[in-house]
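To whoever is covering the structure queue this week,

Two jobs came back overnight. Logging them here so there's a record in the thread.

Job A:
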Amino acid sequence: MVENLAKGHQDPRQVHSQLMNSPGHRVNILKREFRAAGIGHACDITVELLGG
């Protein structure tokens, strides 16, 4: 399982876009063994969980 955290953003889509533009995060997000994803957002904190 992998967890990506971001603070200070109002839009989870913006967070995901920025994570996809980060080489290290992009590699984790695109791993084939991850079959499920969850995204949570509250106030200015976004969490992405990836697992299989």
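Job B:
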Amino acid sequence: MTLSAGRPLAHSTPHTFFTEQLPAYLAVQPCDIAGKFVFDIRGEAGGCWTVDLSCTPALCQHGATDDPDCVISLSDQDLAAVLRRDDDLEELFYRQRVQVSGDLQKAAGLLPLFAALTSPPVPRLETLLTPYPAAAFLERHWPGRHLVVPPAQARLRTLQSVAPLSNVSALLEHWRGTVRVFPPGEPDQVSPHVSAQAAAELYSRGFTLVFDSVDLYFPDLHAWMKAVQNDLALPATTWGRCMVYATPVGSGFNTHFDENANFAIQLAGSKRWKIALNDAVAEPTAGHRLGGNLHPELLPQMERPFPERVPDDHFEVTLHAGGLLFLPRGHWHQTTAIAESLSLNFTYDQPCWADVLATALRSHLIGDVRWRALASGTGASDPARAAAAAAEAGALLKQLPDELAALDLATLFANLRPTVRNVEPIDLKRDWVQALSHLSSVKQPGA
């Protein structure tokens, strides 16, 4: 991180940190705690500094005040390790390499300050799209026009600095969740969840691996995903996540479209994409795979039947390591790895006006006990009860124009909250057996 003083924290001395960089940070990021703290730094580069967070602006000066709330003592080497993110104050305290005298509760309040100080700057949309300007993307491509960005080593370096994404082995070594696996030859039919150890074995046998919600396991990646979501000005109810796909040569996914917008980054290897516009349904609220079951929501949205294969007017894009493809929702696409492929998607669902306004309207209506009443009789087979339910609903609907007029949309939008996603229970034994059952019918290389 570089502060306004212009010197990276990783190369700080105690003097430059306490007299230049910390004051510069506190000038733009006020601290939530109040108190006077003396830092007694031992070693050749050490000294004493007072950090007074009880005044505005905060005061940082050389020397020790006579009335500190607490005194924090550590070596200059340990302070340097904290600023480099090689260690943290709390761990050093428990290892008795940081000593605190005075108010321990106030000293603990400094931990979030140091965590924020030493965190790297969160990458944003500009970093993801480099060298393509984010402003040009938002003006010309978002949300409905695809974009291909050539390979950029800066993008790869940043991604590899926030998560172990250099190769599939590195990710599997750090992975603590389950992995979806797709058997060779049936990439869209079966996707059991297995352990990382089982996934490594299946990958060696030609299975495609999909790592769901990778950002939840790597906080810096999650922060980047959320920052891009904010740059895109998506509603608060948007479900954003990062997905990793490890695909053997010749494998891929059959023709389909998604209800999500995707930024696909090629991490290693190469992948060929066949892409086509969708003239059967505009702004779909559900995805569809050719040959798969039609989502009931799509039926009233369709203007014509879906094609039987990837449309003839498709175009092809080949991504190599470091390249990026922005694929809007609804675009037909089919993928094939032409070299052992590892790719990462920043995936965002696309809440439509019906979603957002219905959510906002509900949050308003449930403030009235009449709208919270049980919708009794709506499922009744008795005509009298059904008629009474219809009359009650009709009476409420007559009040709806007045309720709509009373809506403060700005406040309602500001109060929208992300949708809580339920995680489907996973049976590893069942899914492992299900995955293995496909091996007997899969011809192995050289067989």
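Note for Job B: The CA atoms of residues 294 and 408 lie 37 Å apart.

Please reply-all if you pick these up so we don't duplicate work.
Q.
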